[in-house]
Amino acid sequence: MGFVGRFLFLLLLVAAPALGQLPSQDILALLAFKKGITHDPTGFVTDSWNDESIDFNGCPASWNGVVCNGASVAGVVLDGHRISGVADLSVFANLTMLVKLSMANNNLSGSLPSNVASLKSLKFLDISNNRFSGPIPDDIGSLRSLQNMSLAGNNFSGPLPDSIDGLASLQSLDVSGNALSGPLPAALKGLRSMVALNLSYNAFTKGIPAGLGLLVNLQSVDLSWNQLDGGVDWKFLIESTVTHVDFSGNLLTSTTPKELKFLADISETVVYLNLSNNKLTGSLIDGVELSTFGRLKVLDLSSNELSGDLPGFNYVYDLEVLRLANNGFTGFVPSGLLKGDSLVLNQLDLSANNLTGHINMITSTTLQILNLSSNALFGDLPLLAGSCTVLDLSNNQFRGNLSVFTKWSNDLEYVDLSQNNLTGSMPDVSSQFLRLNYLNLSHNSLADTIPEAVVLYPKLTVLDLSSNQFSGPIPANLLSSSMLHELYIQDNMLTGGVSFPGSLSKNLSLEVLDISGNHFSGSLPDDVVSLSGLRVLDISSNNFSGALPATVTKLVALTALDISTNQFTGPLPDALPDTLQSLNASYNDLSGVVPVNLRKFPESSFHPGNSRLEYPASSSGSGNSHSGSAGGKSLSTGAKIGLVAASIVLLVILILIAIVCHYKRISRQFPSSEKVSDKNLHRATKDIESMKRKDNKGSSEVSADDLGAPRKGSTSEAPSQEEKLSGVGAFSPSKGSRFSWSPDSGEAYGQEGLAWLDVRSPDRLAGELHFLDETITLTPEELSRAPAEVLGRSSHGTSYRATLENGVFLTVKWLREGVARPKKEFTKEAKKFANIRHPNVVGLRGYYWGPTPHEKLILSDYVSPGSLASFLYGTAGEERPSTDLGAAAQDRS
Prior knowledge:
By secondary structure, the protein is α/β, with parallel strands linked by helices. Among the domains are: 24-110, Ribonuclease Inhibitor (Leucine-rich repeat, LRR (right-handed beta-alpha superhelix)); 632-670; 676-892, Phosphorylase Kinase, domain 1, CATH 3.30.200.20. Residues 785-893 form the Protein kinase domain. GO terms for molecular function: ATP binding; protein kinase activity. The chain crosses the membrane at residues 641-663.
């Protein structure tokens, strides 16, 4: 070997180690991914993935989350490290030996790249619970080795690609919780290795694709909470070997009234079946067919439109959970479900139906959760409660007293007997309630004093005794309980003063205290500061007097304060916490100036009442008071003359405007013979249909009488139609706040005079507009544009006469914020009143449910002003103006 040859050989020997440490293609890919990370709170990647720790063999086995197979990267696992940034997944296409890619539960964004098909060896892909978006690429179907894929909890959109049937080895697919849409591809039936399929919480449409029964390995399928319509694929449920089926939260319907008879033939492999929150109709199968009910353990048919009597369930030995709530079932509660040891039933929910009859006793040793609320059950309370831990009998017609408490099980943790007809006193016993953490006896007729025993319930966190007839003082030490979080004793006849724990023994647990609507008197003690965890304090409608203690400013967690309708005097504390979001101090005798930090609330939070309390017109505090300051300088003579002259001019202008409006009203009441287009009056758009489908069902139901429950101090007259739809107080505050005054709410009334219907400043009505018959259809946008004239006001809101584009008049009642009932009860009562047909009852046409608390409207026929006699009996020779919109359309067509 010559000199040159020997030199080259030595050069190679020296350079070889350095060449071996050059970054490999895999390392470069990982470093490229690292560049997109903007926040790594634990330093899991940023502190570990660096050039200094590169292994000699080319695979950085010492890097966190990196798994090596020889010199190649075989796995990247970054789950749950709260990493933020833009994840460029395209760089992983260079990792030709990558088997597992998992970075779930982070805060990464980005998309699935089209070159994902390059990952030929990939078997496990999990990027769930991040912020990835964009479509799922068609090339995903090229990953023939992929066995598990989870894209759940992201923002992926678009359809599920047809190429998905190329994933021949896929066993688990989870794309739940995204924004995917379109019909489910028929290609799903090509996933022959599929074991678990989860497509829930997306916007998939059309029907359930046929052929799922061909997936012989399928054990779990979840298509819940999409927009799937059509019928249930009973053939799939009968012939497949699936164990877990969830089709809830869709638009599935029954093709025949007896379709549910297929439940008798359901595959014996099915142990969980959830068809709740659909539009299924018909009745359940009878008891004879139930004997062949398979091995079903969980059956949920709640929130459908099922009816008829309930079967006996006498031979269903494996059923553990039965939920049939929010349907139209009638008849009695099957006694076999509540007693004996023949069943293993653990949970039973029959709430919000039309069931009647007595519940004598509950003797089941397995039943733990029982919900029979919102039915028409009557008689005394059950003598025994079995082994129940949760017992909800609220909103029924139970009567009698609470003496059965002494015989109920010590297992009870949750008891709700509210909205019944219970009387008598509350037993002074505590041994039965050692585990009780929730007790609701509100809206009954219980009397006498609140027993001291409630203080001894060691785990009680929520106590609601509101809207009864309790008298006497608050039990000593009740407000000192270290476990109590919420206490509602409003609307009773409690008396005396209120004492709080001493300032040295702070109670951090109590968060909500409502003692309003009683007869408490005296001053509010300084020791209120001991309730330092309070978020809501309502002491309104009592007889408290004196000055508000300065210590109330130290309630740093307070968000809602109502001291209205008392006899408080002196100034408002000027350092109430900035956390305060709701305030009502009206109807007192406060004085001074409203503190600067409280001027974010409307004047209605302080007046009426408080005639000596000044609410400055500007933040500078130099404005006029509500009723004028006694110490202010009197106006000059010239100023007075100017004010009088301006008032006269303004009065003349208002009279002229009133005359013009009067003639316009007359012209609208007697329109010309111009035809009203039947097309305009009866058009039914796809938007209206889609909005109807959004009318989700709730979990409870109340009667019209409950909706119209009179408020304290009201007369015993029957509530009006509007009052029933917008009644206040049918639910206890433990289930919803009763505060309505806030800086965001503004005044409770709509605009004056001629106004657009989008008062209170939404750009347009963007909620759900529902019509209760076929006489009229229009969109929220059209209703927003309709000019409206104020007809009058009541405690429930403001009424307008709205003029539609086709000349038809409607009366629109804009309900005050906090007046409308919860959506489920509001909807049901609206439908009830829509069915009332009487010549002297104004027809209810529809309602609007908006996205904010103050956007609740009731639409009814407009009846022009006139005497009562003219409307009841008419006038000879004079024809009463038609208020029937359907008739109007026919007359003008």
